[in-house]
Amino acid sequence: MVMPVSNEAAMSEQLEKPTFQSSRDSTKRRQIMDGARRLFLTQGFDGASMNAIAEEAGVSKGTLYVYFESKEELFEAIVEEQCAEQAKQIFAFYDNEDVETALTRLGGELVRFLCWPDHVASLRTVIAIADRMPELGSKFYLAGPAHGIACLKAYLEDRVAAGILRAHDCEITAAQFIASCLSLTHRPMLYNYAGAPTDEHINRVVEIAVRTFTGAYLAQTRPARG
Q1: Which CATH architecture is the domain 1-69 placed in?
Q2: Average pLDDT, rounded, for the chain
């Protein structure tokens, strides 16, 4: 005899199914994106076909199209994820850090993150296809460089309001600080002029960038700590 299922039990079962399905979908999506990332890095955007991506990811082409309607959509998802990872890991600030410590940490982490070979290759690919996919180039800039500048700008404005930094154009100085950290570390690598910078070189470049910034904008008289 089949016992009737109570309303509570039926509701519980219905709630569990989407969770399992969502987890399975997330795993499959991750599998596809990892396979596509490997192929984009080795063959570039134009060289990676949807057939090849499906094979690399170990899924059928039909399954691939369930998650991503086109190669452009798949590449865009990979780029957005990389930008989100950068923002989460690097552009966070802590109350117990002084300005010198915060900028030194940010500069070093940003350079090391962007100088990963995979990230350099991804940026080259974005630049290569930006002419014919300007919306992707714009999204990448807004989610990556522009977001980083905005986060640092907000931090600097807060330090100005607290009397720790002198008043200045925080957006321009945020962009200049980031550029000064990357110009002799990430930029040569991006153009394939040099390999990944050493930790010693990164530390030296970031130290000078921080010293230049604080020398120009750090208030002479700091507010007393409560």
Answers
A1: Orthogonal Bundle (1.10)
A2: 84
